[in-house]
Design brief:
Number of helices: 5
Order of helices and strands: HHHHH
Shape: globular
Structural class: mainly alpha
Helix content: 55-70%
Distance between the termini: 18 Å
Strand content: under 5%
Radius of gyration: 15 Å
Largest sheet: none
Amino acid sequence: MLYNVGTWFWISNELYSVNPDDYPFWDTHNLDIQRFYNISCYAYGSDPQYNQDLIDEGYLPEDRAYWCEEEYLVMERAWSFLLKDFDNGFFD
């Protein structure tokens, strides 16, 4: 699923890229290409061996991948904390 989300942000970046002079960099949202790299990093960090193709195929630079396992754990802990009161055992 992370691959699909990442691909969406890559395509969105390609289709809707704006002139950097026109982009409101003060906006609270990341650029689509930043979202692509963050999601790719989470996917890689969740299972580096399985997702090695992200690096091999050039979608995720090795320098960016260095901290992805740690970033994934931070994201996973945050989501687990936020959703703990809503766990009904569905995913067990």
